[in-house]
Amino acid sequence: MTNADAxxxxxxxxxxVALPGEVIPLHIxxxxxxxxxxxxxxxxxxxxxxLQQQDAVAECGCTxxxxxxxxxxxxGRLNILVEGRRRFRLxxxxxxxxxxxxxxxxxxxxxxxxxxxxxxxxxxxxxxxxAMTLFLRMLNLMEVKSPRPPGGxxxxxFRLVAAVDLGVALKQQLLELTSEAERLTTLITVMESLIPRxxxxxEREEAIRGNGKGN
Length: 215
Known about the structure:
Layout: E1 8-14, E2 23-28, H1 31-43, E3 47-53, E4 56-72, E5 78-94, E6 104-111, H2 121-141, H3 156-163, H4 168-176, H5 180-210
């Protein structure tokens, strides 16, 4: 059923972070979330995915829409694909009549990036180029075949961090930032610290493979 209040959405707390444009596989098995997905399947409505850690949920999340039901089991379980859409901040979680049986709803405020400060175009391009260079270097060290930039219409920072698992904490941090330049700069810092460790691992693996082999 479509919500009368466009700022009230169904809420799906998970141990993951969804980003705009990211396609995520989900296995649905709890009865309340079977109902949530069933309603989204019928109405086409978006629902909110928000990171849950222990008993707390993050203040910011991302809506998702159902893209495909990949597999449907006799007991109602589902394997599905969803796509991240719009970022939101939680204003109020609406109490369910039976929290053990009903999924949550929340009143939210949607947000997007703020207008970027006026910066020289070459500086912005330099940030993007640096992020892309490090990303491709990282994929190469991970032995990804034919590493290439991830496509899509979303900001580069979201596409990069969705393509490689760098942890939910970083994804949540980037989700909340409202500046593409700041997100890319954060990613650059993370990749610059990670790449030397990947290089060291590669050197050790090559040394092990070459151990005992004469030239």
